[in-house]
């Protein structure tokens, strides 16, 4: 029997079109411990906003939501400062995984949640 060959034509590199990077919209809600001073909170938010933008996030909008009572006690706190960040990133971007990794080990962030926003 003869061998079959897969003869696919390939285009030269100069003709290959660049793939458009699809950006997905995400929202991160994180709860900051309530007894943090204002200067430290501003530095924390700036640091985590920087983590997102340094790792490929675009169109970042970051703002404090409000100080709210928690449904249950977390680390001896009964309330927390809710902060919300919305941005766009590629699904393969390091922004999400790096934010998640660092938020888990930061003692000033009580909880965080990353949600993909449906269009």
UniProtKB/TrEMBL annotation:
InterPro entries: Ribosomal_bS6 (IPR000529), Ribosomal_bS6_sf (IPR035980), Ribosomal_S6_plastid/chlpt (IPR020814), Transl_elong_EF1B/ribsomal_bS6 (IPR014717)
Keywords, sorted A to Z: Ribonucleoprotein, Ribosomal protein, RNA-binding, rRNA-binding
Region (Disordered): 1-20
Keyword Amino-acid biosynthesis: no
Ribonucleoprotein listed as a keyword: yes
Gene Ontology CC entries for this record: cytoplasm; ribonucleoprotein complex; ribosome
SUPFAM superfamilies hit by this protein: Ribosomal protein S6 (SSF54995)
Pfam annotation, one family: Ribosomal_S6
Highest taxon of source: Bacteria
PANTHER family: MITOCHONDRIAL 28S RIBOSOMAL PROTEIN S6, SMALL RIBOSOMAL SUBUNIT PROTEIN BS6M
UniProt-recorded name of the protein: Small ribosomal subunit protein bS6
Organism annotation: Lactococcus lactis subsp. hordniae
Organism ancestry: Bacteria, Bacillati, Bacillota, Bacilli, Lactobacillales
């Amino acid at each position: 029997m003869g061998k079959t060959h897969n003869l696919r034509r390939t285009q030269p590199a100069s003709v290959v079109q660049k793939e458009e990077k699809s950006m997905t919209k995400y929202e991160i809600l994180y709860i900051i411990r309530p007894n943090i001073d204002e200067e430290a909170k501003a530095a924390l938010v700036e640091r985590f906003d920087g983590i997102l933008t340094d790792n490929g996030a675009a169109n970042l909008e970051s703002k404090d939501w409000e100080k709210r009572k928690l449904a249950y006690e977390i680390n001896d706190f009964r309330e927390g400062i809710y902060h919300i960040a919305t941005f766009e990133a590629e699904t393969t971007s390091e922004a999400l995984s790096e934010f998640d990794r660092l938020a888990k080990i930061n003692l000033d962030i009580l909880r965080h949640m990353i949600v993909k926003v449906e269009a």
